Amino acid sequence: MKKAKTVYVCQECGYESPKWMGQCICGAWNAMAEEKVLPVDSRRDSRSRTVVEDSGSGISRPRVKAAPLSEVQSGNFSRVDTGIGELNRVLGGGLVKGSLTLISGEPGIGKSTIIIQAASNIAERYGRVLYVSGEESEEQIKMRGDRVCKGNLSNLFILAETNMENIIQITEELKPEFIIIDSIQTMYSAELESAPGSVSQVRACGNELMKMGKVKNIPIFIVAHVTKSGDLAGPKIVEHLVDCVLNFTGERNQELRILRCFKNRFGNTSEIGAFEMMEEGLVEIENLSKTFLEGMEDGAEGAIATAVYEGTRPLILEIQALTAPTNIGFARRTAIGIDNNRLNMLLAVLERKAGLSLINQDVYVNVVGGLRPEGTSTDLAAVLAIYSSYKGMAASHRTLALGEIGLTGDLRSVQNCEKIIKEASRMGFSRIILPKKNAQAIKEPPQKVQLVGVSHIREAIAAFSGK
Fold first, then answer.
1. Angle in degrees, CA 367, 371, 376, rounded to 5
2. What percent of the chain has pLDDT over 70?
3. Could you tell me which residues belong to the region Disordered (predicted)?
4. Scanning 227, 260, 323, 366, which has the fewest C-beta atoms within 10 Å of its C-beta?
C-alpha cells in the first residue's frame, strides 16, 4: 500500500510544492503550510456519480453515458422560492435545484439571519431543511430562529457538526429539500490530516458538497468567511466550484444592507437586493430610491441626485462633494462609493476642459447610503457636485444629472435612460441633465419633466448654473 506523501500548499492561492518556499508564486510570503496527501485507491472513485462492477476484472468503473442536450431539463423550471423577494431577485428568480450558492460578508452583517429566514420559508413550503452549523450551538440558532422566523419550525433541522462524513450520513437519512453549511472554513474530512480551513480541506469539502448537491438535486447554501480587506477568505477554488457567489455588505452601525451577486450561472450578475436590519430580522426595502433620498435637502451646496441602473431596476441616489483649502503640500482626494482613480480623472478633466483649478483644494466625494454603483453614469453628477461645492452654489433637490464623461470632456450616452427618466419622474424630479444623444432618443418624455441635453462638460456646467 502506498504511503501518504507530504506537500506544501499555499494558503492564499492553493499552489502545491514538494518543498517549502518562503515566497509563493502568487507573491504571498510565509503562506506555505505542510499537508499530507493520501494516495487515491484505484479500485474506487468517489467523484463518480454512477459506478458499475466489471465482471471480468472485478474493478468498479464509472458508467458513462451521454445525453442529448434537447432532453436535458432546464433549471429554470425547477427553482425553489425562498420566500424573500429581494433574495429571489438576486438569485435570478429563486434557488435552482442542485445548485451551490456561496454567501460571504463581514461578521455581524446578517448572513446567518437571512439564511435562517430563507430556511424557515423553504421548510414551511417544500419540506425538510438541514441547517449544519460549525460555529454556533443548537441553542444559539434556536434563539435566532425564534426571533426572526414567523412560521412553523418543525421541518427545520439543526445539526451542530463539522465532520463531512457525518453530515453526508445525516443527509442520506433525512433526505432534506435544502441544505445550509455554516461555514465552509469549519468543515473537515477525516480522510485528510490537515486542519479545518486549510486549502486541502476546503477543496475536499467543497467537492463533496458539489457531488451531493448535483447527484441528489438538492440546493445548498454555503457560508464563507472574509478577510480584513473584505475579500473572500481561502483559495479561489471555492468560487470556481459554486454556481452563485453572493456578497452581503453594509455598515453594522446602520440598518441598510445590500446583497450583491458577483457570479451567477442561472441569472444576471448585476442585480442587487436591499434589506433593513430590524429587531425582527431583515426586512425587504421595496422603494430603495426613496431610502437613498430621504435626507436630501433643497438648496444644499455640493449635493445632487443621480441615477444608476442595477440589474432590472433603476435607482435614484444622492452624491455629495466637499472642497476645502488644503493645509499641507499635497491636496487630498477621497472618495467613498466611487473609484478613487475615477475621481482623479474627473478632476483632471474639470481643470483642463472646464478651467476649474483644484490643485490647492482637498476634494471629498461620497455616495450617500453606502452603495457602490457599477458603471460610469454617475460621472456628471460627481463633477457638478464638486463644482457646486467649490463655487458655493446651491443645487435644487429636483434636479438630476447622469452621464459618462470622457477624457475630451464630452458626454457619452448611458443605457436604459428611458427607464431611469420614468423612475425620476415618479420620484418627483422636474429637471434632468443628461447626454444629448439620450435626450434626442426619447420621443415622449414624461409630463412636467424638463430634459436638458448637453454634449460637453462646459455645457453641463452652464445648464446647471443657469448661465
1. 70
2. 89
3. 42-61
4. 227
